[in-house]
Design brief:
globular; 5 strands; Glutaredoxin
């Protein structure tokens, strides 16, 4: 986890102001209302992606008590996203549909890509799967860009305060530590 920021407040404001959620808000307007936990997902076929949705859903009450609004950025179509988020009980959470990963590539986020085969061969990924991810969330087919890596950014006061950049798809972020 890192607390360093990329770029200026103006760069972040410009980037977030240009990003529309599926609900019609822009991210900068949401960030002005409350701190954001911006969660970038992989594809919906990824059990670790579904684990992230489930983890945030389980923390919804705690996040609300801290006035932190979770917002998800995903690569899939909005109709498919709606199904997954509703399944985990957070169908009303703000989401950004980004099928071409343009938001992922913005300099303020700069989330990379890794070969999914190499990820699957990583022992940490196997350990994550064996620890229950596949039993809780199943294994799905790649739906979208299987190379795209996830990330999490805590935005407060117009700045990225903390970030979690995944080294493997099986990394387990401490969401509450991120929102401090």
């Amino acid at each position: 986890m890192s607390s360093a920021t990329n770029g200026s407040v103006d760069e972040l404001m410009a980037s977030l102001g240009s990003i529309q959620t599926e609900g019609g808000s822009n991210l900068w307007a949401l960030a002005e209302q409350s701190p954001l936990l911006l969660v970038f997902l992989r594809h919906f076929g990824c059990s670790f992606c579904r684990q992230a949705i489930s983890d945030v859903a389980e923390l919804q009450t705690e996040l609300a008590s801290r006035r932190v609004r979770p917002v998800f950025v995903h690569l899939g179509p909005p109709d498919l996203a709606k199904v997954y988020f509703a399944y985990y009980g957070i169908g009303d959470v703000e989401r950004v549909n980004d099928p071409e990963a343009l938001v992922y590539k913005l300099p303020v986020f700069a989330l990379g890509r890794k070969n999914p085969l190499m990820q699957a061969l990583n022992p940490a990924v196997w350990v994550g799967w064996l620890r229950g991810t596949i039993f809780k969330h199943g294994i799905g087919k790649i739906q979208g860009d299987g190379h795209q890596m996830p990330g999490i950014f805590f935005i407060k006061g117009g700045k990225i305060v903390r970030r979690f950049i995944y080294k493997t798809i099986a990394d387990e972020p401490d969401y509450l530590k991120l929102v401090g």
